[in-house]
Amino acid sequence: MEDKQFWHDKWQSGQLGFHLEDTNAALVKYWPKLDIDKTCEVLVPLCGKSLDMLWLRQQGHEILGVELSQIAARDFFEDNKLKYETTKDDKFQNYTGDGITIAVGDFFDLNEARTTNIKAVYDRAALIALPPSLQKKYVAHLESLLAPGAQILLVTLEYDPADLDGPPFSIPGPQVQEHFAHWCQITQLKTTALTDFRDIAANETVYHLVVK
Ligand SMILES: C[S@@+](CC[C@H](N)C(=O)[O-])C[C@H]1O[C@@H](n2cnc3c(N)ncnc32)[C@H](O)[C@@H]1O
């Protein structure tokens, strides 16, 4: 599952079970409570073509999404009828329009020079999309990009791993602590039992993290 080809194949074949046709309810409910400066730029790692980027943009933020698939970036702008242009740098093909940039490439190639204005991160189906071996690397990379005071809204999923092979991967509360407690203050905002997740019992949990 560490294979990038896995995700390219998903986009190529249109197997996009993770994609939501509405803005995520937890984002709409909790983002305003975080009191995040509307002028700051928001990072959306592993963004797919999530409509949540549109909602965040409507709150006033500039958006930097990072995504492996060109198909996702193109579809995001075209489906939402947004004009965009593309530019290339050494690591990313950038799709930019209306205050939103989707940098197409590997999240692990994103560097600090690119994230100096990032004061907030929205992670829905990013950490949980990665296998345990890459979750550690992902969290360490996020830590390297963020300054103290930066805030993260994190949405995770928990289920009995015997019920399902990820992705998405189950990340129970103690694992969230393990990943973030040494560098973030963690507030658990809400846990909801999902009624429609692949016919198995699963909980979604929303966390607010503040970089120490
Ligand atoms: C489960 S999807 C979630 C997409 C989005 N966050 C959402 O809520 O719809 C995970 C996405 O991460 C992308 N991805 C996986 N590994 C990546 C990496 N190393 N760098 C950038 N994007 C990656 C995949 O192409 C896929 O679109």
Quick structural overview:
The protein is an alpha/beta fold and 212 residues long. It has one domain: Rossmann fold, CATH 3.40.50.150.
Description:
- The chain has 212 residues and is an alpha/beta fold.
- The protein has a single domain (4-12, 23-211), classed as Rossmann fold (3-Layer(aba) Sandwich).
- The protein is built from six helices and nine strands.
- A nine-stranded mixed sheet has the order 3-4-5-2-1-6-7-9-8, with helices on both faces.
- Helix 3 links the parallel strand 1 and strand 2.
- It is globular, with a radius of gyration of 16 Å.
- The model has no long low-confidence stretch (mean pLDDT 96).
- Bound molecules: S-adenosylmethionine.
- The site of S-adenosylmethionine has 19 residues, from strand 2.
